[in-house]
Amino acid sequence: MATDIATLRDGTGALVRDNRHAVSPGLWVLAWRRLTSDTVGMVALAIVAAFILMMILSGAGLLAGDWNREVGVNYAPPSFVDVEAPATATQQTITTTETAPAGTEYKSTIVDPIGDVIEKLKGGKAESPPAAVQPGAAEEKSVDPLADVMADIRAGKGVGAAVKPEERKATLPLGGDKWGRDVLKKTIKGSETSIFVGLASAAVATFLGTLFGALAGYYGKWIDDFFNWFYSVFSSIPYLLLILAVAAVLQQKGMLTIILILGLTGWTGVFRLIRAEYLKHKSREYVQAADAIGASNGRRMFIHIFPNISHVVLVQLSILVVAFIKSEVILSFLGFGVPVDVVSWGSMLNEAQNELILGKWWQLVAATVAMATLVTAFSLFTDALRDALDPKLKGRLGA
Amino acid sequence: MSNTKFTGDPLVSVRNLRISFRLDRHTTFEAVKGISFDIPRDSTVALVGESGSGKSVTSLAMLGLLPPENSIIDPASEVLYGGRNLLALPIGELRKLRGADISMIFQEPMTSLNPVFTVGWQLEEVLRLHMGMSGRAARKRAVDLLREVGIPEPERRIDSFPSQLSGGQQQRVMIAMAIACEPKLLIADEPTTALDVTIQKQILELIADLQKRHQMSVLFITHDLAVVGEIADYVVVMRNGEIREQGPAKAVFESPQDTYTKALLMCRPQLDRRPLRLPVIDDFIHGAGPKNLEDRKRGIKPNDAIVLDVRNLGKSFYSREGIFGKREFKAVKDVSFQLPKGKTLGLVGESGSGKTTVGLTLMRLHEATTGEAIFEGRDLLSMSPAEFMQYKRRIQIIFQNPYASLNPRFTVGQIIVEPMQIHGIGNSAQERTDMAFELLNKVGLAEVSFYKYPHEFSGGQRQRIAIARCLTMKPDILICDESVSALDVSVQAQVLNLLQDLQDEFGLSYIFISHDLAVVKYISDQVMVMNDGEIVEIANSDEIYRHPKMPYTQRLLASIPKGWHGQHSRAND
Prior knowledge:
The complex is a heterodimer.
Chain A: H1 2-18, H2 27-36, H3 39-59, H4 84-94, H5 101-109, H6 115-126, H7 128-131, H8 134-141, H9 147-161, H10 183-219, H11 221-236, H12 239-250, H13 255-265, H14 268-282, H15 285-292, H16 297-334, H17 345-357, H18 362-388, H19 392-398
Chain B: E1 12-22, E2 28-39, E3 44-48, H1 55-62, E4 71-73, E5 78-81, E6 84-85, H2 91-97, E7 102-105, H3 109-112, H4 119-131, H5 135-148, H6 154-157, H7 167-179, E8 185-189, H8 197-214, E9 217-222, H9 225-231, E10 234-239, E11 242-248, H10 249-254, H11 259-267, H12 281-285, E12 306-320, E13 326-340, E14 344-348, H13 355-362, E15 370-375, E16 378-379, H14 385-392, E17 395-398, H15 412-423, H16 429-442, H17 459-471, E18 477-481, H18 489-506, E19 509-514, H19 517-523, E20 526-531, E21 534-540, H20 541-546, H21 551-558, H22 563-571
Parallel strand pairs in B: 3-9, 3-10, 7-8, 8-9, 14-19, 14-20, 17-18, 18-19
Antiparallel strand pairs in B: 1-2, 1-4, 1-5, 5-6, 10-11, 12-13, 12-15, 15-16, 20-21
Helix pairs in contact in B: 4-5, 5-7, 7-8, 9-22, 15-17, 16-17, 17-18
């Protein structure tokens, strides 16, 4: 997206300054016109734009900044699910220490292997004053990798976010999670991570793939051999294993790590395509003509050839964004993703695993629907983009 | 050649054919505007026109090969064959006719044959599908067909793949496939345009011979009037989707009625005349007629100043063979010549003769293997790239295909300003822009072109842009690599006139590379004939065309289509 607009400016920017009215529409402008006449593509673009706007607002702290606040009761059901759910929830609010009837039933019938862990955490979370003592003791016994995070939560956000039990809402628009946090806000906040990771890692991967592909395709010979060897090595290692290896090397969790992991492993497809494009274009007559007028290798590569293949790059970029949003979700789901104090759609799905056993489906649905909508819209947009930039259409325009 | 028989009903008659193309949702373009003509039995009809005249569209429509999604054929149009309207036939019926009654050969034999099947397999497929022949019978017939179209050793060649045959042989195979089912009508769409002149002659003779032997009709589509003169009984001249003139070949060639036909006949450089300026279409349509018809003197004198001295130029390409071995292919062998200032050296030869390699090597777009090129006392080929940079602008090249040599993502302004930026010509962006405007005027383009993209221009205009790009660097030597070959005859004349004007004004020296012997004869002072990377003969152009010394040159010159007059004299034999 961002690239699209930027390139539009690149293509015509210089000319618009000179003479606005005499300028013919460039190929980008024509492509944009074709894109705007594609209804599906425009709807998809609107959805994508809405998601990105949401991501930016959330990133700026204007939206869902308080996603951490435990505003509802534990597992508050969505507002649109009515009748019995509020009843149990009210009971839960009143008798926090006592188990609700539903809970008892569940406890007696199913043996939960991590039941006591959850119970412990629940106790620690819900009742703030006694919990303050517990972690201290735990720390002395064993090394807790999350100690800092827990302390953080407790000291700052956790305590601040705690809402008195009486003020907690029985239902939330899209329901609440284990701690009564608003799933809607979590989804919005999660989009920030997921989309940002998707965009940034796709940008890294596309940049690497384009650069390597340009060098390999343009220069050929041993440079091409080298990059091909590099490509073969990279693509011969199973994808997940490679991600684990990079994750192990980088040694820390966080958004930057995921971006690097995905960026450093995802360039291969782009490389292959861009290399082929450069191979094709370098022997074209317009490049020979550029050589004849004395343009240097770099100038030929990036000023003469690049604008002619930039549509391929753009389409690759958007395909990768879709793939990486999914990858981020998968990584977070597997636990290699973002740290626990950051929410992403993947970590939501991870939490949803346990919740689903309890019949609390709303977090799963919220994250899945959000992701599916974005990914579908983005894919449809990519299709429309590819059609709009189809070089075959150029001939029809030219003739 | 028989004269056209107008008796009896024609084999095919086209009535009010009107075809439009949908460009986008709101605009359509009328490519063929209600044309009518007949194809008599047992004769050759030539459909002549420049690009965009609708000649190919007409032929595709006759076979129902137009893409249905964006083409609209007017319901009143008719193509009558054997009492049936081909345009209204259901696709199944039409498919039975295609290949069997009406068959077609295309321009590019290399792309018309499937590269992964042997030619025999492809030929036999036609026979099996349309004639219902069994495997053995089909193979026998295929060998006969290959023999008929003049493929040597047909028993062996039947198992070769298309890539193992030369361009001329591939076109022969295409013709064999087309005549396999004894069609009544053969449509040949520019069948010789992609071929060398000697091969073209053979193919034309083959088609004429087959036409007579099988008593079929041929619809021959071409832009080249000289070729038409050689083989047509009946000529239809088209322009912009309309028929300008039609009639028996004799009438059209000897007393053309239409101004456009007259212009077409005049625009083409003639072998026996060399006017100061070539007449262009506009001279006929707007003006009183061609001007400046007196002959221009050509040729070089011994005391002409030499601008470029090429000695023993050689260029080898290497292909890998085995693990360590490599095979040398000598594209250019020991070529030496001198280029006088302000003169034109024509470089002719068939494809593979190494003429383009000479041009690219002199530009250092290819690295020379041996030899030197002395320019202002320095050897261009041995100096370092940094040193060569300042000489680079002095030698420029105009490529063959104006559709490929301009960057489609640059505006014309960017294209022309780019070399000035690289070489630091002009002090400011404003100065460069002004120079660009000036050059656009010089090559005859409107100033507004500066803001347009190459795809908005026609072939001839694009070639002007390419010329303007070269002129920014004020070169001493301009290499024209088939620069007018891809252009229509009328546009070709305009570009040749422009090149001549520039030579007269700036004293440029040209190396004019072309396979088109008539064009080379027109523009060159000296002609160098190349074959297999070697110089066959080099002499003043009038001299070489009048008295070719070497057998190869003689053979080459004999292959030039002579047009109507050539056929006329032959018919009287």
